[in-house]
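Below: protein 1.
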Amino acid sequence: MDVMLLVKAAVMGLVEGFTEFLPISSTGHLILAGSLLNFTGASAKVFEIAIQTGAMFAVVWEYRERLARTVSGITHDPVAQRFARNVLIAFIPAVVLGLSFGKAIKEKLFHPVPVAMAFIVGGLIILWVEARHRRRYGARDQAGDRHARVQTVDDMTAMDALKVGFIQCLALVPGTSRSGSTIIGGLLLGFSRKAAAEFSFYLGIPTLMGAGAYSVWKERAALSMADAPMFIVGLIFAFVSALICIRWLIRYVSSHDFTVFAWYRIVFGAIVLLTAYTGWVEWAA
């Protein structure tokens, strides 16, 4: 057993869990962290996708009561049926576009410099959306509670779900952030901050678990039982750190906006570009 490999897996799991649900791009951070740790190659790329499942198990655990009610009421409860329908509708665009363009995107854009550029562009978009939100609702109405058209996930229509689903597809570009695109997209569509964050959590369950299962199956020839400890460690650390992050984020959005994450993206992206341009850091492909 390679202890150093397990340490790298643990670090990658922490990076995944702490960044998956924040609008700062977990995929982008995993690519950059993998480059710094020299954690690259075919199995590493599958690992980066697979450990997202650990983060999704954190959502399942945190919202287990809501999910259990949905499953038990799927045949007779209109609220449960609408919720399940909306998650399914929002999930479909990512499946279609991901299967159609995922391979080309990975070949061209899964590299540190494109990720850094996406960090900066995404940060600027968040600043614009937050400025728009303040103009419309007032700086003191951070949660959007008094004005939100969609106050909770149960207020969503099928069209709302479809729009969020297409917005989520922007995250096929690494560095964009799946959570960021769905949460900020939700704000643009008139969601409250809590509704936007929670629907992003729920939508991540089929999206990322499906992507992880598909990636492992597709690349199964490149994996072996010797890789199992690495995957187990990564999944565990991703689960624990994601659970901490989810609970913190729900408290945070009740009284704060996402501006701090925008500036983080811009500064971090600029540092990566600067170090790549000057050669201070040898970013691996």
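Below: protein 2.
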Amino acid sequence: MRNEFAAELSEIAAEDDRVVLLSGDIGNRLFDKYKARFPERFYNCGVAEANMMSVAAGMAMCGLRPITYTITPFTTTRCFEQIRVDVCYHNVPVIIVGVGAGLSYAGNGATHHSCEDIALLRMLPNMTVICAGDAWEVRAAMRACLQQNGPAYIRMGKKGEPLVHQGMPDFEIGKGIVMRRGSDVCLLSTGNLLPNVLQAADELNKQGVSVQVVSFHTVKPLDRELLAQAFSQFWVVATVEEHSIMGGLGGAVAEWLSDRDHQKARLLRIGVADNFLHAAGEQEYAREYFGLTPEAIADKTFEMYRAIAPQQVKA
């Protein structure tokens, strides 16, 4: 995803001379082409992420369109106060890009995990929160966020993630993308787990379960129309995310659901458990530990579906 982000950034900067990139001392080689073309629009702010966020807010107040970029926990939890007070309070168009979200940097230990960022940033007034499902969604999200006049957070993976779209999708902030149609279970995937969710749907299909898969890329604002349809149509609606089960997409949907009358569907939240991973291992190991493999996602979903669906549906 980060390579496509860099490529799209160069294209956008060529179209809009207000675009400025601020880096938290990473991605220096990644942005070589960008720096060669726009040397006056690149700022390495060093390992001073809080200051980087305040600088970006100041630039936005002066009419520029700053984009901040560094590893996810360092551009969210480390400088949360600056995001809240400098960016969101003033409602300025800063695009915050977090690379290596969720468990992408699992091998570096818990300091580099980001399983709280969605929860933190979606609480802030004026903030848009987008979790890209693949590199094409990263590109589309950047263009969509630049059309807004307020702050936005784009959460993305690291590198090597499979592409799920054939090209730039029909992307609209606050509108989920239906990847597959189904009638029994709806899987709402946000972020870089989308390939795993699609594989989980394949596993469920083998068990006779008809599955709809949605790339629910925008956690704030929620696609309320899609949610209303899903909870009235399916037996199970499952949110799947590489984020804590508390406060992320699952938490947002649970809040939405609590304000509505009884619905047909049951909500299942699949995500990272409420504990730190102290063991060492790369992303696939961490996903297996937290039950985020395609098989584990399918098993959890099927267990709830089997428990609540009528006998004639199971047959």
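The mean pLDDT is 95.
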